[in-house]
From TrEMBL:
<dbReference type="InterPro" id="IPR005841">
    <property type="entry name" value="Alpha-D-phosphohexomutase_SF"/>
</dbReference>
<keyword id="KW-0597">Phosphoprotein</keyword>
<protein>
    <recommendedName>
        <fullName>phosphoglucomutase (alpha-D-glucose-1,6-bisphosphate-dependent)</fullName>
        <ecNumber>5.4.2.2</ecNumber>
    </recommendedName>
</protein>
<comment type="similarity">
    <text>Belongs to the phosphohexose mutase family.</text>
</comment>
<dbReference type="GO" id="GO:0004615">
    <property type="term" value="F:phosphomannomutase activity"/>
</dbReference>
<dbReference type="GO" id="GO:0004614">
    <property type="term" value="F:phosphoglucomutase activity"/>
</dbReference>
<dbReference type="InterPro" id="IPR005844">
    <property type="entry name" value="A-D-PHexomutase_a/b/a-I"/>
</dbReference>
<feature type="domain" description="Alpha-D-phosphohexomutase alpha/beta/alpha">
    <location>
        <begin position="2"/>
        <end position="60"/>
    </location>
</feature>
<feature type="domain" description="Alpha-D-phosphohexomutase alpha/beta/alpha">
    <location>
        <begin position="109"/>
        <end position="196"/>
    </location>
</feature>
<feature type="domain" description="Alpha-D-phosphohexomutase alpha/beta/alpha">
    <location>
        <begin position="200"/>
        <end position="299"/>
    </location>
</feature>
<dbReference type="Pfam" id="PF02880">
    <property type="entry name" value="PGM_PMM_III"/>
</dbReference>
<dbReference type="InterPro" id="IPR016055">
    <property type="entry name" value="A-D-PHexomutase_a/b/a-I/II/III"/>
</dbReference>
<keyword id="KW-0119">Carbohydrate metabolism</keyword>
<comment type="subunit">
    <text>Monomer.</text>
</comment>
<dbReference type="InterPro" id="IPR005845">
    <property type="entry name" value="A-D-PHexomutase_a/b/a-II"/>
</dbReference>
<dbReference type="InterPro" id="IPR005846">
    <property type="entry name" value="A-D-PHexomutase_a/b/a-III"/>
</dbReference>
<dbReference type="Pfam" id="PF02879">
    <property type="entry name" value="PGM_PMM_II"/>
</dbReference>
C-alpha cells in the first residue's frame, strides 16, 4: 500500500475494491523512529495483545525451525503496489457529501469554509488535499503536511500542548472555521474551534457525545476511567449514559463491543487520549472519521443558521479545576514490568481499603447503568484487558476529587489520573 494511515489499513479489508483477508501496518506511531512496530488487522478489527503474542510465538518457532533446517520457506509471494489511500479518501468524501446533502452544491459541501490541518509531519496530510480541498474547503495555513519521521516541528499528538497551540495560532491568523490535529498514523485526532479553543481529552469526548446522542438518543458512551465527573453530567444532561472502564483504548473499544453484544446500545467509545471508535464505523479508532463527523456537524449548523462553531455544543461542559497526568517508571527487567505494576496497584488498593489515607475510598461506580461493568468484568468469559486499575474518591471540604492508577502494558509504569491525582 505504501504510505497509509492505520485506519485505512483496516479499511483495506472492507472497501469493495480491495476486500483483503488481512493487513499489516508498520509504524512507529509517535514513538522514536527506532521503535517501529506492527499492527495487525482482519475484517473483525485490530488484533488484541494476546493475539499478537501468539503470532510472535509462532513466528519465533518457525524461525528456530528454519535455522535448524526443519522448515521450508515456500514460494515467494507476488507483491503488487495498490493505491489504497485514493479509495479511502473517496470513501470519506462520499460520507460527507451524502450526510450533508448540500441543497445548492452537493459535490462541494465545504465551499466557503476554512479548515486548518496540522498533520505533525505524519501521514495525515492526505486529509487536506484529498478530502477537504476536493470538497471545496480552503485549507490555507495548514501545518506540517509533509511526512517526516523525525518530527522536526512538534510532537504529532492531539494531547500535546505545542501541537494544539500552533494550530490555534493558525486558526486565528487565517480566520478558520476549524482546526484539525492528527497524530502520526491518524488513529487519533483533536480539533480547535473557530474561537481558538482546544477540543481534546474530555472536551473532544463531550463534542462527539453531543453529536452521537443527537443521532442516537439514549445511547451508552464508554470512556476510560480518567474522564471527569463533569463529562458524566454532560452526557446525562443530553439523555445519554456513561460507562467508565479501564484505561487503554482497546479495553474501551472492546467494552463497547461487549455491551452491544449484551443488548446495551453503545454507539461511541472514546479514551481521553483521543482514540475514539463508533459503532457505525466498524468499531474502528479512526481519527479522520471522527473529524469527518465534526465537519458534517459544522456544515449542518451553518445550513441551519445556528450561531457559533462546533465549540458551542460543549459550552455547558463543566471543566475540572485541575487535571494532571503522571507517569512513573517501573524499574527492573521489562518482562516483569506488567506483573510488578499490577502488584503495586493491588498494594495501593489495599492501602486505601485499610483507611491509611484519610478521606480516600475506592469508587464502586455507584448506581451504574451497566451493573458492575465499569471496572470489574462479571461476564462468564471476560474480555482480555491490558490494564488493571481502580478509581479512588478523595473528599475534601465537601468537594470530590478522583484519582486512578494502572499497570501499563507499555511498561512505563503507573498513570495517575483525574483532578489532584495522587
Amino acid at each position: 500500500m505504501g504510505l497509509a494511515t492505520t485506519p485505512a489499513c483496516f479499511m483495506s479489508t472492507i472497501l469493495p475494491r480491495f476486500n483483503y483477508d488481512a493487513s499489516i501496518m508498520m509504524t512507529a506511531s509517535h514513538l522514536p523512529y527506532t521503535r517501529n512496530g506492527l499492527k495487525f488487522f482482519t475484517k473483525r478489527g485490530g488484533l488484541t495483545s494476546v493475539d499478537v503474542e501468539k503470532i510472535c510465538n509462532r513466528a519465533a518457532q518457525k524461525y528456530v525451525a528454519r535455522k535448524m533446517g526443519l522448515g521450508s520457506r515456500g514460494t515467494p509471494p507476488v507483491v503488487m503496489r495498490v493505491d489504497l489511500m485514493s479509495a479511502y479518501s473517496q470513501h470519506l468524501r462520499d460520507i460527507i457529501k451524502q450526510r450533508v446533502a448540500h441543497p445548492t452544491h452537493y459535490d462541494t459541501p465545504l465551499k466557503g469554509f476554512k479548515v486548518i490541518v496540522n498533520a505533525g509531519n505524519g501521514c495525515g496530510g492526505f486529509f487536506t488535499w484529498d478530502v477537504l480541498e476536493k470538497l471545496g474547503a480552503d485549507t490555507t495555513g495548514s501545518l506540517h503536511l509533509e511526512p517526516d519521521g523525525m518530527f522536526p516541528n512538534q510532537m504529532p499528538n492531539p494531547e500535546d500542548a505545542t501541537a494544539m497551540s500552533l494550530t490555534r495560532d493558525a486558526v486565528l491568523a487565517h480566520g478558520a472555521d476549524l482546526g484539525v490535529v492528527f497524530d502520526t498514523d491518524v488513529d487519533r485526532s483533536g480539533v480547535v474551534d473557530d474561537t481558538g479553543a482546544a477540543i481534546n481529552g474530555d472536551r473532544l469526548i463531550a463534542l462527539m457525545s453531543a453529536i452521537v446522542l443527537d443521532e442516537h438518543p439514549g445511547t451508552m458512551v464508554v470512556t476510560d476511567a480518567r474522564a471527569s465527573d463533569g463529562l458524566t453530567r454532560f452526557i446525562a444532561s443530553r439523555g445519554g449514559h456513561h460507562c467508565l472502564y479501564r484505561v487503554g483504548y482497546r479495553n474501551v473499544i472492546d467494552k463497547g463491543v461487549q455491551l452491544n453484544n449484551d443488548g446495551v446500545e453503545t454507539h461511541l467509545m472514546m479514551e481521553t487520549t483521543g482514540h475514539g471508535a463508533l459503532k457505525e464505523n466498524y468499531f474502528l479508532d479512526d481519527g479522520a472519521y471522527m473529524v469527518v463527523k465534526i465537519v458534517i456537524e459544522m456544515v449542518r449548523m451553518k445550513l441551519a443558521g445556528l450561531e457559533g462553531g462546533v465549540g458551542s455544543l460543549i459550552m455547558d461542559l463543566e471543566e475540572p479545576a485541575e487535571s494532571v497526568l503522571l507517569r512513573m517508571n517501573i524499574l527492573g527487567e521489562p518482562k516483569h514490568a506488567k506483573q510488578r505494576g499490577t502488584m503495586a496497584v493491588e498494594a495501593f488498593k489495599n492501602y486505601i481499603q485499610e483507611d491509611k489515607l484519610s478521606g480516600w475510598v475506592l469508587d464502586d461506580c455507584g448506581d451504574c447503568s451497566v451493573g458492575e461493568g465499569c471496572l470489574v468484568d462479571t461476564n462468564d468469559h471476560p474480555i482480555d484487558v491490558d490494564a488493571y486499575m481502580y478509581r479512588i474518591i478523595q473528599r475534601r471540604g465537601g468537594g470530590m476529587r478522583l484519582a486512578g492508577k494502572e499497570a501499563s502494558l507499555l511498561r512505563k509504569g503507573f498513570v495517575g489520573t483525574r483532578e489532584n491525582p495522587f
